[in-house]
Amino acid sequence: MQEKILIIGSSGQIGTELVTALRKIYCENNVIASDIKPSSYEVMNSGPFEKLDIMDEQLLNFIVKKYKVTQVYLLAALLSATAEKNIELGWALNMRSHSHVLDLARHGLIKKIFWPSSIAVFGPTTPKINTPQYTVMEPNTVYGISKQAGERWNEYYWNNFNVDVRSIRFPGLIGWKSNPGGGTTDYAVEIFHEAITKNKYNCFLNPSTMLPMMYMKDAIRATIELMESETKKIKIRSSYNLGGISFSPKEIGEEIKKHIPKFNISYNEDFRQKIADSWPASINDEHAQKDWGWNLEYDLKKMTEDMIKNLTIKYQRQSI
Ligand code: AKB
Strands 112-114 and 49-51, how do they pair? Predict the structure, then answer.
């Protein structure tokens, strides 16, 4: 049977790249991009796009039936920093969108769901180094609480309604195709933009804040590998830990300096420092490795080279 895939949140950090990757595998017309706002030129011009406010359950059902959708990737969410500024919207959007999509599967309209969780499910009482899959989880941000509740819903829908929902606890994601999206880890995206355009960056976290991060190419590959794994291999239905690479603002600054010697980083902590301090510094992902063969490709050096190369070309093209 031909898969028809709906991506909700195609204008965001993951969506921008995932739509293109899935269109290469499943063909342009079988991957429907959707978002409340238009997506990148590449996404808008390579296949179908539907304007969708994910709070509108009726419209979601209409789109799913119109295209005979079989799989949904629900990427729309308010990230940690943005959700702290509007807690009601953060909670409503993150929770309702999720239950709308889970219910599509429960009622037999779709067969498979991808829903990203986050390292934000952990909190200040979680062991910080090499954080295990199963551990204390007391998140203290709206975003983290919504992701933790979402993980519990995933497992509940799998256990009680056999809903095939798959999930990854993403670390901070770094990519060059889209702009930062309101997350605490987004300093590690902003730093590249400012290094290339201004040779300097004023970081909102302190120099030694270690956080787990991942290059977008690895994150997209992980998502597709998890979704394409045989059902029997998926032993964890809440969400899988993925480790990525751990570094501090000082360390990434030093790596960027190797390519842009004039680059200078300064520091001015804001409210996001407290969020970062509540998250792990590094993550243990042995379950993902064992269950579905996860393997990281990009380290800090390789990611920095690729980011600087591609972002520089992007800015050069924009200035022509
Ligand atoms: C954020 O910083 O809010 C996100 C995340 C870690 O999920 N990038």
Answer: unpaired
> Could you tell me if 148 and 189 lie in one domain?
no
What number of other Cβ atoms are within 10 A of residue 190's Cβ?
Answer: 15
The rounded percent of the chain whose pLDDT value lies above 70 is 100
Same domain, 202 and 125: no
The whole-model pTM stands at 0.97
Give the separation between CA 262 and CA 28, rounded to whole angstroms: 42
Regarding whether 235 and 264 lie in a shared domain, the answer is: no
Catalytic residue among 67, 73, 143, 240: 143
Q: Ligand 1 pocket: which of 126, 173, 209, 270 to mutate (most atoms <8 Å of CB)?
A: 173
Residues 151-184: pLDDT tens digits?
Answer: 999 999 999 999 999 999 999 999 999 988 899 9
Residues spanned by the domain of 315: 175-213+245-281+297-319
Q: Is any atom of ligand 1 closer than 6 Å to the C-beta of 172?
A: yes
254 Cα–ligand 1 center, Å: 23
pLDDT tens profile 105-135: 999 999 999 999 999 999 999 999 999 999 9
3-state DSSP call for residue 276?
helix
41 carries an active-site annotation: no
